Amino acid sequence: MTDVPSAEFNIRDYLRTELFPHFMCPGCGHGIALRALLWALHELGISKDNLAVVSGIGCSGRVGAYIDANTFHTTHGRPLAFATGLKLARPDLKVVVLTGDGDCLAIGGNHLIHACRRNLNITCLLLNNEVYGMTGGQVSPTTTEARYTTTTPSGNHEPAFDACKLAEAAGAGFVGREMTLQTPALKNLVKEGMSHNGFAFIEVLSDCTEIYGRKNDLGESPEMILAQKAEFRSKDYGMERDEVFQPRSLATGVLSRNDHEEYTAAYRKHVLSKASS
Amino acid sequence: MAVPGLRHHREDARGRGLNDTGIQNIQGNHACAVAAVAAGCRFFAGYPITPSSEIAERISVELPKAGGTFVQMEDEIASMAAVIGASAGGIKAMTATSGPGFSLKQENLGYAAGAEIPCVIVDVMRGGPSTGMPTRPAQGDFMQSRWGTHGDHACIVLAPWSVKEIYEQTVRAFNLSETLRVPVIVLYDEVIGHLVETLDPGSVDTGEITTRKWAGGDPAQYRPYACGEDDIPPMARPGDGYRSHTTGLTHAENGFPSQDPTTVDRVARRVLGKLARHNDLVEQVDCYDLDGAQVLIATCGITARAAKSALRLLQDKGIAAGLFRPVTLWPFPEESYREAARGKQQILVPEMNAGQLIYEIQRLTPPGVPVAGFNRLDGEPITPRQIAERVEELLNHD
Questions:
Q1: Closest Cα in chain A, distance from residue B241 (Å)
Q2: Do A88 and B90 touch (CB under 8 A)?
Q3: Which residues of B207-220 are buried (b: 16+ CB within 10 A; e: fewer)?
Q4: Cα(B271)–Cα(B35) distance, rounded to whole angstroms?
């Protein structure tokens, strides 16, 4: 594969098509998220040679291998910690983390809050499908209350995480959320996140049709995606005035930004420059 | 005793006053940090834990001076992950910990072994299990250092017994890790970690500093785990155009996941066999008074220093005893041990645990030769007198 893509976005310029057929189930939203990411990379003109994609374990973890870049499929929950080392060692690389709701919010939750706090220039895409798909459909930290999974046979009794609020509170420089239905909006959000000089956390509302959808009679992929459309509103929509839109009212779009100093810049300024004195 | 030019460090809060050259009184953990930087380490990620924290503290001073990066991570697991990430980026990287932290690092250590990413892990042993005795020495991680992570894997464990040897073995750990693409563990106990001895770090003869073999040639032809006669695949540096895939899944030579039985078997046997193939680089032992010895004492670390003193106590009583000390603890130097044990009538394995090294010794000792242990579990180092008395006791029983 050449490192010089055509001017028009052609997803195949960015994929390792020799690995096809891919592993994703019919209807899985992760492929759309992948498309949006590659589209954003294309429009930003990021070189594949200079791109490192780090992922963890689970369905989200296997997506990265299809990207024709420097790809690292690491251990469960640890892609952000791995990416922290990689980015600190190689600030010249553009580092993207692909993670999932179990990977990022359960086993890797500690790494997420500290990655947000450090504000290293990494873009993290949380592919939230509300379930542990790879292991057969167990409850995750973002499973909607009362939904059935293979480990909540009476319906989920735990409240779900609002990952974006968590990331914002922990200090992430850029926080956003988008659903796969709005692919161009998702692409633009990823572009904005990647252009932010600091830690960008983007929650992608994916869907697991084959396991989670089937277990809860949520229909096929189009039904699940349309249901998301009914449940989520752009932040600009003025959600607080929409009384009908309760209680799963999560906003999409750019949710927060701050101008905290980026980590490598802070390290250069506060540590390296003083080291020789 | 006055040593000409000897310096006593009095550093301030910013670490000013510390020197990495010149004859000085230096703690084992500090020597480890200084040696790492001399070996080319430019990234350290760690988490505070007694009795290893001085390594992180010292290297947080030394690395920025060398243009490197020190980061204190949120936990032990993250430290290990960050070290592997930095090394995957092409930088020599290290972490340091003690038993509880070493347990937490095991999964990622297995990742480094499987994906063949060079890294150095220092484990300063304290009493265990669990929180155990944080400020007391032990040698309870002999087995964990080899078998802590799940699955068959290759790793090297080096066991220094002095401050100077901590320096030498830390440099050697980087060289071996880079040359053989394998995680290398530097394993020593709290006594040596906190021992202050006289050393001129700048004058230690460390030999050549080696760096991993980088991928060259046509990126289109590059297969990340294909290698030549030496069984060590050249590594691609991100940004150099190779765009390869790295995974903890079993993989084929092209780097992508594979469960094909023939491929999995072939790759696994190559990775597991590479250390034996380069045993001339890996193995290092240190032996004393083996010729004509009736008794052989086999041990390592601070206990071996006590044993060396015990040899003299025993000689004074007319007992000929020798010492076998594996400096490379794992892979265990099997042939060297067999050679050292030849003709001996009694083997003694003193260790600061309930008996771990003794399993290897029993396995390799000829049938009919008695192997006894001497074990302290009380957080105190074993003394030369205790070892000598144990030898006498064993011989008097005959």
A1: 5
A2: no
A3: eeebebbebeeebe
A4: 28
Query: Which residue of B lies nearest to A73 if distances are taken between CA atoms?
Result: B247
Q: Over 90: is that where the pLDDT of A241 sits?
A: no
**B11 lies in some domain:** no
A-chain CB neighbours of B88 within 8 Å are 72, 82, 85-86
B29 and B129 assigned to the same domain: yes
Whole domain around residue B144: which residue ranges? 24-203
Q: What is the pLDDT of residue A1?
A: 46
Q: Write the single-letter amino acid at A75.
A: T
Q: 10-residue block means of pLDDT along chain B (398 residues)?
A: 63 76 93 97 98 97 96 98 98 98 98 98 97 97 98 98 98 98 98 96 90 95 95 97 98 98 98 97 98 98 98 97 98 98 98 98 97 98 98 88
B257: closest CA of chain A, how far (Å): 9
Rounded-to-integer distance, Cα B130 and Cα B151, Å: 23
**Joined tokens for residue A231:** 């449940």
> By the CB < 8 Å criterion, does B342 face chain A?
no
Kindly state whether residues B39 and B145 are assigned to the same domain.
yes
Give yes or no for residue A147 having a pLDDT over 50. Answer: yes
Domain boundary among B258, B280, B302: B280
Complex ipTM > 0.85: yes
B178 and B141 within one domain: yes
Beta carbons within 10 angstroms of residue A2's beta carbon: 9
pLDDT at A2 over 70: no
Q: How far is A275 from chain B (nearest CA, A)?
A: 5
Neighbours of A159 (CB within 10 A): 10
Q: Is B280 on the interface with A (CB under 8 A)?
A: no
State residue B12's pLDDT score: 75
Asked whether residue B198 falls in the same domain as residue B247, the answer is no
Q: What is the pLDDT of residue B11?
A: 74
How far the first Cα of chain B sits from its last, in Å, is 45
Chain B partners within 8 Å of A54 (Cβ): 85
Q: Following CA atoms A123, A125, A126, A132 in sequence, which dihedral angle do they give, to the nearest 10 degrees? A: -120
Average pLDDT score over residue span A73-99: 98
pLDDT at residue A175 greater than cutoff 70 = yes
Last residue of a domain, one of B171, B203, B235: B203
Question: What is the torsion angle, in degrees rounded to the nearest 10, for the CA atoms of residue B78, residue B84, residue B86 and residue B89?
Answer: -140
* Cβ contact A81–B90 (<8 Å): no
Residue A245 pLDDT greater than 50, yes or no: no
Judge if pTM exceeds 0.90.
yes
Least confident interval from A53-57, A157-161, B221-225, B238-242: A157-161
Within a domain: residue B210? no
How far is B126 from chain A, CA to nearest CA, in Å? Answer: 26
- Per the prediction, chain A carries an average pLDDT of 92
B249 → chain A, closest CA residue: A73
The CATH number covering residue B338 comes to 3.40.50.920
Are residues B99 and B47 part of one domain?
Answer: yes
pLDDT at position A236: 66
CATH superfamily of A22-275: Thiamin diphosphate (ThDP)-binding fold, Pyr/PP domains (3.40.50.970)
Chain A contact for B64, CB < 8 A? yes
Domain count, chain B: 3
Q: What is the mean pLDDT of residues A113-120?
A: 98
Q: Residue B141 sits in a domain of what CATH number? A: 3.40.50.970
Q: Collapsing DSSP states into helix, strand and coil, what is residue B304? A: helix
Across the A:B interface, residue pairs with CB atoms under 8 Å apart total 138
Whether B125 and B271 share a structural domain: no
Q: What is the largest CA-CA distance in chain A?
A: 66
Question: Would B1 be classed as within a structural domain?
Answer: no
Q: Is A3 on the interface with B (CB under 8 A)?
A: yes
**Degrees (nearest 5) of the Cα angle A85, A86, A89?**
85
Amino acid letter, residue A143? T
Whether B325 maps to a domain, the answer reads yes
Q: Are residues B163 and B72 in the same domain?
A: yes
Residue A48 · residue B243 · CB < 8 Å: yes
